[in-house]
Amino acid sequence: MGTTAAVRTVGGAVRRRGGGRGATALLVLGITCCSTPPDAPAADAPDLARRITTTVERVMNERRVPGAVVGLAVGQRWSVQHAYGWRDLEQHVPMTVDTLFPVGSITKPITTAALATLIERGELSWETPLRDALAVTPPLPDAAGALTLRQLAAHTSGLPMQPENWTPPERAGPAAAATPSAAAYSGSDLLAALRHVALAPAAANRCNYSNFGSALLGLVVERVSGRPFGAALAELVFAPIGMGESGVDPDAAAAARMTRGYAWGERRLVAQERHSFGDLAAVGGVYSSASDLLRFCAAQIDGGPWRRETLADLHRPIAKVPGFTGRAATTGWFLEQIPGFGPLLAHVGEIDGVSSCVALDLDTGTALVVLANSDGNAAELIARALMQQLARSDGTWRL
């Protein structure tokens, strides 16, 4: 099958369109859309776009990724965004920079940001025991009730990855009939699992990633704010930062802008069903755009609605992550030490055939966001390749 391509200039940026050869020999369609404020190094913008595009297209072709959006920014001073490939392979809808993505576990630092707002209001502290934060009747068992919000957010609670009475959609298989789906799973189901859980020993000194703990933080946000989880995030995080393209339950307009997700199976890319998380939304139920995630990163540096000491506390390393050199869990994030950069605040996500990666250089305020409509670690692989391309030997970014 042949390939066609056209080039046109939009707002000073080159937008390239092309066609594909099918899923087994994926040809990347590049659509580049750049936004460069006046104080950005305009003379370098074409070279930066070229280096980003070359790197992203290489990884997408190697990994057979249908589409991706990349955002790069330095604080609120300037930003650039690029879109590549297809949002919908079946309908031949190209990816655009304003495409919405389910961001999976990047929901977790957003949840801790909501809790940080409640803490600044004096309604909680990170050392508040879960029994006090939830105030349920009958009271929680001693061990579970004594867990603090920080332990849950830093994955040092000793809770298992998932509640025993819930199977995540991507792992359901034949067990799906035995456990409720995410949409049907309730806060009551979560508390029932908590009342019978066995905590891992010596958990305070070890990061043990837990969706269970993250789901409990979602219940805390709801109870303390007095609002459903999505509405609470809108009030406590999205509105103050200006994240107008983010939410939990997409309406018809947002759903129309959402990418399809894909997984590789039977030697072809297969579109994946989107799932609702219901009362487990804090595990990974947020959708967002590259521009909104860049705003979220900027707020981690420039303060946004939070005091700087609050942010410093969120970014402070709490526990090492077993099996990863130079990685530590913070309160809601992971702190990476990667040669060539300052401390990187990072998180990845994967849900419904979509992967996401956010990395923020705390020294320079440079943020990188990658969203890809492919499962696995596609977004993280693109992000790491870009960082290798953009790193200088002196620890600064070659922008």
The top level CATH class name of the largest domain:
Alpha Beta
Kindly report how far apart the N and C termini lie.
37 Å
Structural class: alpha+beta
Q: Estimate the helix proportion, in percent.
A: 25-40%
Tally of contiguous helical segments: 13
Can you tell me the number of structural domains?
2
* Spatial extent as radius of gyration: 21 Å
Spans of at least 5 consecutive residues whose pLDDT stays below 50 are 1-43, 172-178
CATH architecture annotation name of the largest domain: 3-Layer(aba) Sandwich
| CATH topology call of the largest domain | Beta-lactamase
Looking at this structure, what is the CATH superfamily of the largest domain?
A: DD-peptidase/beta-lactamase superfamily
Total DSSP E strands: 16
The percentage of residues in β strands lies in 15-25%
Q: How many strands, which pairing sense, and closed or not: the largest β-sheet?
A: 10 strands, antiparallel
Average of pLDDT: 85
Return the string of H and E elements: EEEHEEEEHHHHHHHHEEHEHHEEEEEEH
Question: How does the overall form come out from the CA principal axes?
Answer: globular
Give the secondary structure arrangement, pairings included.
Blueprint: E1 5-10, E2 13-18, E3 30-33, H1 45-63, E4 67-74, E5 78-88, E6 93-94, E7 101-102, H2 107-120, H3 130-134, H4 142-145, H5 149-153, H6 187-194, H7 211-225, H8 229-241, H9 252-256, E8 261-265, E9 268-272, H10 281-284, E10 287-288, H11 290-302, H12 308-315, E11 319-320, E12 327-329, E13 334-336, E14 344-351, E15 354-361, E16 366-372, H13 378-390
Antiparallel strand pairs: 1-2, 3-5, 4-5, 4-16, 5-6, 7-10, 8-9, 11-12, 12-13, 13-14, 14-15, 15-16
Helix pairs in contact: 1-13, 2-7, 2-8
